[in-house]
């Protein structure tokens, strides 16, 4: 096949994973409700407030790392293939950060709902969403049944 060399930017990109794992909020102690404990009491709201703040903090650190990385790695490669590889890498990072920016807004809205004592209940039917579901998806606004129906409707509409 001959002696083929990869462009420098491509070599650098292949040396590290192309997609970073998403920022996690999973580093918390699961809440264990006590028998007879009222749903979404102050202790539970504080538990979710802490989860959301930690998650937001991790996302904000990722944003800072991306900015630093893009400043440090920005180079004007003379080889068009190197430039294209670098631009594609930056484009992927920016798309990921854009999704995370939207998630940060959703987290802020969820923290606001907790502060207004409007958290943990389904927006559609009003039933309790449940501690375990909220720990799995702290920004959830629908109970599992309503979310399932919502996804079925969406599938039917989109084909």
Automatic annotation (TrEMBL):
<dbReference type="InterPro" id="IPR020460">
    <property type="entry name" value="Znf_C4-type_bac"/>
</dbReference>
<dbReference type="Pfam" id="PF21157">
    <property type="entry name" value="DksA_N"/>
</dbReference>
<protein>
    <recommendedName>
        <fullName>RNA polymerase-binding transcription factor DksA</fullName>
    </recommendedName>
</protein>
<feature type="domain" description="DnaK suppressor protein DksA N-terminal">
    <location>
        <begin position="44"/>
        <end position="114"/>
    </location>
</feature>
<feature type="binding site">
    <location>
        <position position="125"/>
    </location>
    <ligand>
        <name>Zn(2+)</name>
    </ligand>
</feature>
<dbReference type="InterPro" id="IPR020458">
    <property type="entry name" value="Znf_DskA_TraR_CS"/>
</dbReference>
<keyword id="KW-0479">Metal-binding</keyword>
<feature type="binding site">
    <location>
        <position position="146"/>
    </location>
    <ligand>
        <name>Zn(2+)</name>
    </ligand>
</feature>
<keyword id="KW-0175">Coiled coil</keyword>
<dbReference type="GO" id="GO:0010468">
    <property type="term" value="P:regulation of gene expression"/>
</dbReference>
<dbReference type="InterPro" id="IPR000962">
    <property type="entry name" value="Znf_DskA_TraR"/>
</dbReference>
<dbReference type="Pfam" id="PF01258">
    <property type="entry name" value="zf-dskA_traR"/>
</dbReference>
<comment type="similarity">
    <text>Belongs to the DksA family.</text>
</comment>
<feature type="domain" description="Zinc finger DksA/TraR C4-type">
    <location>
        <begin position="118"/>
        <end position="148"/>
    </location>
</feature>
<keyword id="KW-0862">Zinc</keyword>
<feature type="region of interest" description="Disordered">
    <location>
        <begin position="1"/>
        <end position="39"/>
    </location>
</feature>
<feature type="zinc finger region" description="dksA C4-type">
    <location>
        <begin position="122"/>
        <end position="146"/>
    </location>
</feature>
<keyword id="KW-0963">Cytoplasm</keyword>
<dbReference type="GO" id="GO:0008270">
    <property type="term" value="F:zinc ion binding"/>
</dbReference>
<feature type="binding site">
    <location>
        <position position="122"/>
    </location>
    <ligand>
        <name>Zn(2+)</name>
    </ligand>
</feature>
<dbReference type="InterPro" id="IPR037187">
    <property type="entry name" value="DnaK_N"/>
</dbReference>
<feature type="binding site">
    <location>
        <position position="143"/>
    </location>
    <ligand>
        <name>Zn(2+)</name>
    </ligand>
</feature>
<comment type="subunit">
    <text>Interacts directly with the RNA polymerase.</text>
</comment>
<dbReference type="GO" id="GO:0005737">
    <property type="term" value="C:cytoplasm"/>
</dbReference>
<dbReference type="InterPro" id="IPR048489">
    <property type="entry name" value="DksA_N"/>
</dbReference>
<dbReference type="InterPro" id="IPR012784">
    <property type="entry name" value="DksA_RNA_pol-bd"/>
</dbReference>
<comment type="function">
    <text>Transcription factor that acts by binding directly to the RNA polymerase (RNAP). Required for negative regulation of rRNA expression and positive regulation of several amino acid biosynthesis promoters. Also required for regulation of fis expression.</text>
</comment>
<feature type="compositionally biased region" description="Basic and acidic residues">
    <location>
        <begin position="26"/>
        <end position="39"/>
    </location>
</feature>
<feature type="compositionally biased region" description="Low complexity">
    <location>
        <begin position="7"/>
        <end position="22"/>
    </location>
</feature>
<keyword id="KW-0863">Zinc-finger</keyword>
